[in-house]
Design brief:
The structure holds two protein chains of two kinds.
Chain A (H helix, E strand, L loop, with lengths): L3 E6 L8 H10 L20 E9 L2 E9 L18 E3 L5 E3 L9 H5 L6 E3 L4 E3 L5 H5 L6 H5 L5 E5 L6 H9 L3 E2 L12 E3 L6 E7 L11 E6 L2 E7 L5 E4 L7 E7 L6 E6 L4 E8 L3
Parallel strand pairs in A: 1-10, 11-17
Antiparallel strand pairs in A: 1-8, 2-3, 4-5, 6-7, 9-10, 11-14, 12-13, 12-15, 15-16
Chain B lengths: L3 E7 L2 E8 L2 E7 L12 E3 L2 E3 L14 H5 L9 E3 L18 E3 L2 H19 L4 E5 L11 H11 L3 E4 L6 H11 L13 H8 L2 E5 L3 H4 L9 H9 L3 E5 L5 H6 L2 E3 L6 H15 L4 H7 E2 L1 H9 L10 H8 L3 H13 L2 E5 L14 H14 L54 E2 L3 H7 L2 E4 L14 E4 L9 E5 L3 H4 L4 H7 L6 E6 L11 E4 L8 E4 L17 E6 L12 H11 L3 H5 L4 H11 L8 H7 L1 E4 L12 H4 L29 E2 L3 H6 L29 E4 L16 H4 L6 E3 L2 E3 L1 E4 L1 H6 L7 E5 L4 E8 L7 E3 L46 E6 L3
Parallel strand pairs in B: 8-9, 8-18, 9-15, 10-11, 10-14, 11-12, 13-24, 18-19, 19-20, 25-31, 28-30
Antiparallel strand pairs in B: 1-2, 2-3, 4-5, 6-7, 6-20, 16-17, 21-22, 22-23, 25-32, 26-27, 28-31, 29-30, 29-32
Helix pairs in contact in B: 2-18, 4-14, 9-12, 9-13, 9-14, 12-13, 15-17
The chains are: A mainly beta, B alpha/beta.
């Protein structure tokens, strides 16, 4: 028996919204009972892209996080649902039964990810079914993954080492993580490259302010531990990625013949420290 | 009834249409068994690259079902309530009055009656008409086929298109490196392999390929940029907007002030010249006029103004040190210059004097040896390996048009007796004043000299135009200074206006009669993915596979809508021209004739093509890449499949399309024809915009607005007609039940105006007023706002009143009519200043 899942490689997502539109095409106006009644014309976003903009000035990053049903192991949406209204299929897909969940708005509110929607007209909660009806007919893919132009959204059998999703995990699996694991729902859906704080800036030399400084040494420390040591690029820019949130870091910039500069940076968010000007010895 | 699956095509890719009980239930990318696809393989840097065995549609292609639905479709023939062709016509009420449903009989009688009246009284030149572009796909039913055939049969006055997406390249770059047969955009053959093998850095300059996608190629090239990113190729993005590709590739962002790109480019040339960092041998052998150019850059001419990085910093806001660093890195690495879409477009070319920027793009790469391995002008959207020897007609080439093709007995599009022409950008002025003059032949794709033709309207012996046949109708959101279109429509000089379209567009309700056309999901046709032909020869190289589709009627036309060919045939019948127009051919007869004229008849029969619905042109086993411009660099004859190249296969095959056959730092075509032009001089100049940073207008209206091509729609198409796309919160934003058009503004500018994200704001200047919803973001710098110039909807607070505030986001109401320069008649929407304030209704 297959065990289906989705892994999202955020580093490849361009924010094109093809997944959002393909999902609507499959479900708006189309019943696939008992998995889902037709999605309403508007308002539902069974998959939607959260835009995350970080940084300031010219040193910013913009990422897109596709949010869809996480098909959680713990199924928090089903905790207080009527018997059989929310269940996990043998292939791992979490389904809200359109008949048995009728009238149960609690299922919408119980989802910690906000990806269950209420169908006002049909009086029923709804969400991504991982295109279970297509898989049941022998299809190998689901609409969102089929539409993705870069392979950012990958679907497949997690137990089949040759499936696209297993291949992605074997390549980048050490970086795969749950979105908001602190919610305790144990999602099956995994993400690679979830946005984390970064620290960026530029090193300048006081007496040569008209030139960019390539190769200045910039070190980032977390207490006494060195997190990373990098050299500025040809624009004089440096960048430390994938840092811990709300942490205290010490940043040091050095260049031969100049006094080093040191500063403390706290990652409440991503930080552009701006220009660090080193004075000649 | 069992589900049926039909094949069809959109401007964003091929589709499979699933139909049940006469209703379209879903649409997927064309479903082709994997074993029928033979992907190409590129070996580079010890890795192999090969595309997935699927087709990657443009985002809106996934919403084709929703666009087809009757939400915003024109379903019945309509007449303006206060229009009486035999009595009061009330042209002043166009845009104000309601419509009443009429029968096809009545509608066709009125339209053909007006045609007869005008033909008898004034001749064909009194009738004009024009199309919008790209709303459907196909050869038999699309704009350049039946419409052109019909209108030319009447000897109408054509309206010439301006090359609206690549103005500066067309009117500028052509004088630098030719490619007039590609309207100024460079050839792109095999540049993917070249980049993967040889390129070390890519400078994206006014280019957002994840948004513009090589025009019709869907998102086929998106995976190429993933490969380039994973390969670790350094990327730099020069764009006032931190665009979607910059976000995806995580490149370094340099945002110049709009209109300053030319200055920035000149400062890079300054660094190269003063530091000797350019290919002197290439410049000596393959270019002319460098000394004249050098004198201008160094300030030996131009009153001693040297184009130093500090000089450019003042214009652009980019620190001089960054300009120097970029220039040095560019020269020390094999650098690809990636400018606009297919390599020759971008917002910067739709700016005051945008010719000069496009010329500079070519000249910068010429200084680095354009055509050397890894050194190209490449949009990153085209240049996949493909069989380009198998010919299949595209709608934009003569052999793909039913009025010109050898398959037609009567080549009606070639027989128009009227020599008078109008020009799209100045059409309102021509109508309103009754006279107009303009430079060039619109798309000047035959010779450089076409640009130097001076046209007068009305032409001697011709009538002014009195009837406007509008096919499509989207210009309120896309052309410039569009309040003038309201004035034009309300003029009594237009005695009759008819619109034929599938959807209600921004101009539809200015017509006297509205005719409902059906989409290509409701009729038979055929077409190749992305390959429009004509001046974009072999555009299939933007795709990973060549896909030719039999476009099949999936369902009956909605309402009383009819195919374009049927509508025009019915009109021809009333004019006594049916046989002349149709030659007895049905739409399917034409489709078969075009199919049989193509090269694929040797590979697949009409019956099989018709049955199967598609043909994938395989790539030859012995495929040999011919990278763009490599032949020029190596001094060989042109070996690329650039079939529009008029020197190819002649004794001049080693030359470019310029007068000298070389890259021209000093343009001989300009020297010989317009030697005294100070706005498009012989050597490119930096000329500050009349409406730019620190111009006189800037004191009153301090925000520079840029309006690039849109991310989620295609021009105006799919916007508004497609509610699903309206739900993408970066396309439109719902507030109080209305879907507003976003404007992006920097936090500092927002704060100064007490504006928060989600506020409805008014953008205004002396020309117009538009409401948008504010999105506060660091993606635009201080002093610049961003809003796509592509709203399909025009919704003025006071209907039919020129200058009325528009709710629907037609930001082109704000732009100026002023053209690129005196002799370069391109549009300039990115040279626009305005102010923004919170809207208090």
């Amino acid at each position: 028996m297959a065990r289906y899942g989705i892994v999202v490689d955020i580093e490849k997502c361009t924010g094109c919204h093809s997944c959002f539109l393909a999902c609507k095409d499959e479900y708006v106006g189309n019943d696939y009972l008992p998995n889902s009644v037709a999605q309403p014309e508007s308002g539902h976003k069974w998959i939607q892209l959260k835009e995350v903009e970080r940084g300031t000035g010219t040193k910013i990053k913009v990422d897109y996080i596709p949010m869809l049903c996480q098909h959680c192991e713990k199924m928090p949406c089903g905790v207080s649902a009527p018997e059989g209204a929310v269940y996990r299929r043998k292939d791992g897909i979490v389904i809200i039964n359109s008949e048995k969940a009728k009238g149960c708005k609690k299922i919408v509110n119980a989802c910690p990810y906000g990806v269950v929607y209420w169908n006002e007209e049909k009086n029923v909660p709804q969400k991504c079914t991982l295109c279970a009806h297509m898989l049941d007919q022998g299809e190998k893919t689901v609409r969102c993954a089929e539409s993705c132009p870069t392979g950012a959204l990958v679907f497949g059998d997690l137990d089949d080492p040759n499936s696209p999703v297993s291949k992605l995990l074997s390549e980048k699996g050490d970086r795969a993580e749950s979105y908001k694991p602190e919610l305790g729902a144990e999602p099956v859906t995994k993400y690679i490259g979830l946005p984390k704080p970064f620290i960026v800036g530029e090193v300048l030399l006081a007496d040569k302010a008209k030139e960019c400084v390539k190769g200045a040494k910039v070190t980032l420390r977390d207490g006494v531990e060195t997190v990373a040591e990098i050299a500025t690029d040809f624009f004089g820019d440096f960048e430390f990625k994938d840092l811990k949130k709300n942490s205290d870091y010490t940043l040091t910039a050095e260049y031969p013949g100049y006094f080093p500069a040191e500063m403390n940076v706290k990652t409440y968010a991503s930080v552009n420290v701006g220009e660090i000007v080193l004075k000649a010895k | 009834m069992a589900e049926q699956v039909f094949t069809n095509m959109t401007n964003g890719g091929p589709i499979s249409v699933y139909v049940k009980d006469g209703k379209i239930v879903r649409i997927r990318p064309l479903q082709v068994p994997e074993d029928e696809l033979k992907p190409w393989v590129i070996n580079a840097g010890g890795k192999t690259y090969s595309p997935p065995k699927t087709f990657r549609l443009a985002p809106p292609g996934h919403a084709e079902r929703n666009r087809f639905e009757p939400y915003n479709r024109i379903l019945y023939p309509l007449k303006r309530v206060d229009f009486d062709p035999k009595g009061e016509r009330n042209p002043q009420n166009r845009g104000k009055s309601d419509y009443v449903r009429i029968s096809w009989e009545e509608a066709l009688d009125i339209v053909s009656g007006e045609m007869k009246r005008l033909l008898d009284a004034y001749g064909g030149s009194a009738i004009t008409g024009m199309t919008s572009s790209h709303h459907n796909w196909g050869i038999v039913g699309y704009k350049m086929g039946p419409f052109s055939r019909f209108m030319n049969m009447l000897n109408y006055t054509p309206i010439l298109d301006n090359p609206d997406s690549w103005e500066g390249w067309h009117w500028g770059a052509t004088h630098t490196y030719g490619f007039q047969w590609r309207l100024g955009m460079p050839e792109q053959f095999d540049l993917l392999e070249d980049a993967l093998k040889n390129t070390e850095m890519i400078v994206f300059w006014s280019n957002d390929p994840d948004t513009t996608r090589g025009t019709y190629s869907g998102q086929e090239s998106a995976i190429w940029r993933v490969w380039l990113k994973e390969k670790g190729i350094k990327t730099v993005f020069i764009d006032p907007f931190f665009n979607y590709t910059a976000a995806a590739m995580d490149g370094t962002w340099l945002p110049p002030r709009p209109g300053s790109d030319t200055a920035l480019a000149m400062a890079i040339a300054y660094v190269w010249i003063t530091e000797g960092r350019y290919d002197k041998e290439y410049v000596a052998d393959k270019t002319i006029g460098f000394e004249e150019f050098k004198d201008y850059i160094l300030g030996i001419s131009d009153n001693g103004i040297a184009k130093t990085p500090e000089w450019a910093e003042e214009k652009s806001g980019i620190p001089a040190r960054k300009i120097i660093a970029l220039a040095r890195e560019w020269a020390s690495k094999r650098t690809c210059l990636s400018s606009g879409c297919r390599g020759g477009q971008g917002s910067a070319c739709r700016t005051a004097y945008g010719t000069e920027w496009a010329r500079m793009m070519v000249l910068l790469q010429a200084m680095q040896g354009l055509g050397k391995p890894g050194i190209s002008i490449w949009g990153t959207t085209m240049g996949a390996p493909a069989d380009s020897n198998t010919w299949f007609p595209g709608y934009a080439e003569p052999r793909g048009q039913m009025g010109k093709s050898p398959v037609a007995k009567n080549k009606l599009s070639l027989q128009n007796k009227t020599k008078q022409r109008l020009f799209r950008l100045t059409l309102p002025e021509a109508i309103l004043t009754g006279k107009e003059d303009f430079w060039g032949d619109g798309f000047c794709g035959q010779t450089l000299d076409q640009q130097f033709v001076h046209n007068l309207y009305p032409m001697e012996g011709h009538s002014t135009v009195k009837m406007f046949y509008r096919y499509g109708g989207s210009f309120m959101g896309t052309m410039s200074d569009t309040n003038k279109w309201v004035n034009m429509y309300q003029s009594d000089k237009l005695e009759f206006v008819v619109t034929q379209d599938c959807w209600y567009g921004s101009e539809t309700k200015f017509a006297d009669i509205i005719l409902p056309a059906c989409t290509n999901l409701e009729r038979n046709d055929l077409g190749e993915w992305a390959a429009c032909g004509g001046y974009t020869t072999n555009a299939h190289i933007g795709n990973n596979y060549r896909v030719i589709v039999r476009e099949k009627k999936c369902v009956e036309p909605l309402g009383e809508s009819k195919s374009d060919y049927e509508i025009l045939t019915l009109l021809a019948e009333r004019l006594g021209m049916k046989e002349l127009y149709t030659e007895g051919n049905s739409e399917d007869d034409w489709a078969r004739l075009f199919f049989e004229s193509s090269d694929i008849v040797k590979d697949i029969s009409w019956e099989e093509f018709n049955e199967k619905g598609y043909y994938i042109v395989p790539i030859p086993d012995n495929y040999k890449p011919t990278p763009a411009m490599r032949w020029y660099y190596e001094g060989r004859e042109c070996d690329t499949p650039d079939t529009g190249n008029s020197k190819r296969g002649t004794e001049k095959a080693k030359e470019l399309g310029t007068y000298s056959g070389k890259i021209e730092f000093a343009a001989e075509s300009l020297r010989q024809n317009l030697p005294d032009d100070t706005e498009r001089p012989i050597v490119p100049h930096f000329i500050p915009s009349w409406e730019g940073y620190k111009s006189e207008v800037h004191k009153k209206y301090p925000l520079q607005i840029i309006m690039p091509h849109p991310r989620f729609s295609f021009h105006t198409h799919y916007d508004t007609h497609t509610p699903w796309i309206n739900e993408i919160p970066f396309h439109r934003v719902e507030k109080d039940g209305y879907y507003w058009w976003p404007v992006r503004i920097n936090p500092e500018d927002a704060k100064a105006r007490n504006v928060s994200g989600g506020d409805i704001v008014e953008l205004y200047n002396d020309r117009g007023s538009v409401l948008c919803i504010a999105q506060v973001t660091e993606r635009v710098p201080v002093g610049v706002i961003h809003s796509y110039g592509c709203s399909a909807k025009y919704d003025p607070l006071v209907p039919g009143k020129p200058g009325a505030t528009d709710k629907a986001g037609c930001v082109n109401l704000l732009t100026a009519s002023k053209l690129l320069s005196k002799h370069a008649p391109g549009m300039t929407p990115n040279s626009c200043l305005c102010e923004l304030r919170k809207w208090e209704a």
